[in-house]
Amino acid sequence: MKITVKEIEAWLEAFREEITAHKEELSDLDQAIGDGDHGINMARGVKEMHNLLETKSFQVPGEILKAVSMVFIGKIGGAAGPLYGSAFMKMAAEAGTKEALSAEEFLGVLRAGKSAIVQRGKAETGEKTMVDVWLPLLKKFEGKQEIDWDDWENSAEELKNNTKEMHAKKGRAAYLGARSVGHIDPGATSSYYLFKALADTLREGS
Amino acid sequence: MKKLINDVEQIVDEMLNGMTAAHPNELRRLEDTTVLVRKDAPVQGKVGIVSGGGSGHEPAHAGFVGPGMLDAAVAGEVFTSPTPDQVFEAIKAVDGGKGVLLIIKNYTGDVMNFEMAGEMAEAEGINVKQVVVNDDVAVEDSSFTSGRRGIAGTVLVHKIAGAKAAEGASLEEVQQTAEGVIKNVKSMGMSLHPCTVPASGKPGFTLAENEMEIGTGIHGEPGVERTELKPAKEVAQILFDKIQEDMQLQKGEEIAVLINGLGSTPLMELYVMNHSVAKILQQHELQVEETIVGEWMTSLEMAGASLTILKLDEERKKLLHAPADTVAFKR
Questions:
Q1: Which residue is closest to B142 within chain A, CA to CA?
Q2: Domains of chain A
């Protein structure tokens, strides 16, 4: 499996479809434990990303990831903007100027994104944030030459669902303390859609 | 949802245009941004002060732009932090050669976006420092969480840091003074009725006719406790007790008091609230140097109020009384 600009574009477009279709769900989850704008903000970001992908052409994965990071930083706002934006910026740096990435190299790109999120958000696992999807998912598949995308998607979904019983310690949900228990984290959910979109794209492509 | 708007997507843009149209001699909008600056920015030889955050808190933050307070306010979408590129434009526009102080309310998004903007400005050679306001005693303070939220006490940080900068102090001095205010200002709010974010169309939470929520944030976040509706004197006591638990104010101490309406509570009720607060402060033999009552940090059309107490020292007292000439706050 080789990942080129074509696969990255298909992945991001699938991500846009997931976010657009689940905008209400993300906002409802955020309403329960935050301020209710996560779906709105993410939908605005992926819409701008779609416009960018429609109007510009890219040569290498690193280039498209960089351009998308600038859109996320500039258009999403809230906490999600800097987090997704920083992730994509570090992913772009890791992808460099390579035209095609192997599965192993691409996992390295995603791990660079995870590090950026951890650094920017200063969150650890178990704190009811998107880190609870990114970190364990990438750890599970670290070093794999081939990825079972069904396993990938199911793992991401399970990790997202696991945030339900967590007591929020970071992000706006932390202000609720114990009242945050019983609700799935909205950031973990949008991250699940990002990884589900990846599985759908690469599973079909293989 | 019943709101006086044209287009949900254009609210912030139209509000900013409306503000500059109303105050053409005081405010200027940086082209293609959501930044309002002092008409005469940058002021050479003065530390620039930039604040901002999500919209929906008017008059915060643009209402406090002007001599003696802020040099720029950056507006995000409703209840959503502005993005780093916007904050960066504000920093560049107000840097008069002495550096820029960012006054940030403690929300994960705001801190990250302002920090990123600060990093961008530092990369361009502008000296930037930041302070993070966390005055809300409703939420637990712990190094394991995001910490306490920034609410109405932020306005007093704007006022006092702004006055310090106007005196010609250095960036480090203005930052130090702002930190001093932050350490000594505590707030607590409550609400009677939730608010509706225009883009979502639904209220952030629901309250029955006979209920109130204690410890509500300024974004329609649920509070920490829901109780039956109580008279203003009992509400004042609840808010004061929680603040006092944290501040441990001693008899004879000099304080400033800020009663803040959250958007749809009439001034009449805010004065009733202050009547009850004043009695409690008198019982504790606290010396109230200044009381500020009004709408300063609102939460769209939320009903309710917050109480803020600032412990004064000679410098803070002097700077609080110093002149300020902004759209929403004059001294």
A1: A169
A2: 2-205 (1.25.40.340)
